[in-house]
Amino acid sequence: MDITISKENLIYEEDFFNRLYTLVTTTTYPYSLSLEANWGTGKTFVMKLLKQELEGAGYHTIWFNPWEYENTGDIFIAFLSQLGKELRTMKYLIKDTSVFGLTILMAGISAFSKFYRAQVDFNSVKNTYDTIDKAIKGIHERYNDLHLSIKEEFIALTNEVFEKTEKPLVIFFDDLDRCLPDTTLKIIELLKNYFNVDKAKAIFIFGQNPNITRDFIKYKFPSIKDEFANSYYMKIFDYSINLPYISYNTVKFIHKHYNDVQNDIYSIINKYNTVFENNSFRVIERVLKQYNFNKTLKDYNVSDEEIVFFSYLRVFYPKTSESIRDFLGLQKHTVIHNKDVIAFVGSLWQIIDKTFAGVKRKHEIKETLIEIYEKKETIDVSVLNTLL
């Protein structure tokens, strides 16, 4: 679903966004900010809107999605190259003989493929300068201490940005929690060691699920306790903000882009957001698509409640849906009649109950299932199988 980036399409209250904007623009830099929520809850939209608003106020911003560069061989080189290219586009002087200039050169010539194939790290760059460009022979002697050189060049570049705009450079990192553990950890460690340093006039904003990032930290250090992983995380990110929990406005927002959905679906969607503890507008989008696909089944005595319920069940618990389909395949009759309906629903619940052993709202899910079928005189097994 292609949605225009604007405050009118913001799924959260505008007051939340305004507070976020104020924090970003008034907090002493350099600093790193983690914008935190589960997948599919609108982090990218909020970050793009923030980027748009900051640019409107005169900030220079850079967007980097590490997930898109995972297969390039070295995420560090990819980031430095992206940073250098975007700053050069903004008319900042990026010399070919600088660290950032070299990464741009490497990204643009066939010799760089050696890095991708061999998975060469950044410290190997100076050993291959001759294959990159004969004209910069001997430049590697300036980079015996790459760590210091990168920090100094970054500080100088951000100060140049500040002199031009009187504002810090803002760098956005999206989809960090979609990367592999090694990529995620490399990015946050690079942030701490090279960029979020004294004298750098820069702000770093990350969109991520913090639980996944902490799990990645524990993946790297398997013997550590949760407290250490949390401490490690807090050393990387100076501030963190949670996106607000999903609200009824989110349903209206999604509905706005699906004009063929009836108004009475609002309350049903909202009900199952609560029952299934959903905080993802992508789930709502998926459920609405599934509803639009299955609503013709209403001609077969299927209710909106039934369609939406099993759509959520299918999204959140695909294995349970598969188990129910297996159960349906064992039925001798294609239609369940009258007194057999109650026993049939009881069997359905036994399958679902195994999945929801640790779910807080399990009783609500059971009540919902009973509510859907208690007034039905028949259940068409083939139709139910289609819903799943």
Key descriptive features of the protein:
single chain, 388 residues, alpha/beta, five-stranded parallel β-sheet, two-stranded antiparallel sheet, 55% helix
Question: What can you tell me about this protein's structure?
Answer:
The protein is built from 18 helices and 7 strands. It has helices spanning 14-26, 43-56, 75-89, 99-108, 113-118, 129-132, 146-165, 181-195, 210-220, 226-236, 248-256, 265-275, 281-294, 304-316, 318-329, 339-355, 362-373, 381-387; strands spanning 31-36, 61-64, 169-173, 202-208, 239-242, 335-337, 378-380. The strands form 2 sheets. A 5-stranded parallel sheet has the order 2-3-4-1-5, sandwiched between helices. A two-stranded antiparallel ribbon has the order 6-7. Helix 8 (181-195) links the parallel strand 3 and strand 4 (202-208). Helix 14 (304-316) crosses helix 15. The radius of gyration is 26 Å and the shape is elongated. The two termini are 23 Å apart.
